[in-house]
Structure formats: C-alpha cells, structure tokens
Please model this.
Amino acid sequence: MRGKLLTALSILTAGVGWWGLYELTARVAPDAAGALPFFFALLFAAVTGTVAPAAAYLNRRFAPLATARDPWRFLRHSAWAGICVSIWAWLQMNRAFNAAFAIITILIFIALEVLIVRLREESTQGG
Model:
C-alpha cells in the first residue's frame, strides 16, 4: 500500500512540475520578477517526481538490506537527481556547462551519498 501511495504522489509531483514548467515557459517572460527561482523549483520538483518511482524500484531490487534500514533512501536519490539537473540547467544558462562539469557534479553527489551512508552506519553502530 505504501509503495502505491508513494508512486501516486511522485507521479502527481512530476505532473505538477512538468505542467508548471510548461505554463511558466509559455506564459511568463524570462526577465519577470521571480521567474528564474520558480523555474528552478519547478524543474527540481519535476525531475525528483519523475525519478522517484524508478529510484524506489531500483533500491528495493538491488539494495534490499539498505532499503530496510533506510526506507526513504530512494527519495534522497531522486532529490540528488533533481538538484543535479537543476545545477546543469543553471550552468547551461550561464554557458558554462560541459561534460567535465557534468562528471564533476555527479562525482560530488556520489561522494555526498557515500558520506551520508557511512555516517548513518557509524551512528547505528556507535549508538
């Protein structure tokens, strides 16, 4: 039941995010006040909601023990994807995006995830 509810919520979030992006880009001028932060917030919501069901499935399929310890792990992974795509969009707007920056941001998020996992393991073992 929980999986179906989370899937429905993530589909709703993705739908609202993508629809909001469509409406924002079609109806609001790029230099309007607040358009850029709203664009990044909608992009984050759209990507996070889109990636969440796949991340939940992959976590249940390939990391069942880790998922049992941290059931919200998939949400963190999908949020990493949303942040990553938002950073890439910002870099592209500034004409600074290239393959090197893409690889660097991915490696940074992988390092952060490893750090989070290790800190959680230490806190459960030590506490």
Summary: The chain is about 85% helix and 0% strand. Residues 35-62 form the longest helix (28 residues). The mean pLDDT is 91. Residues 2-126 form one domain.
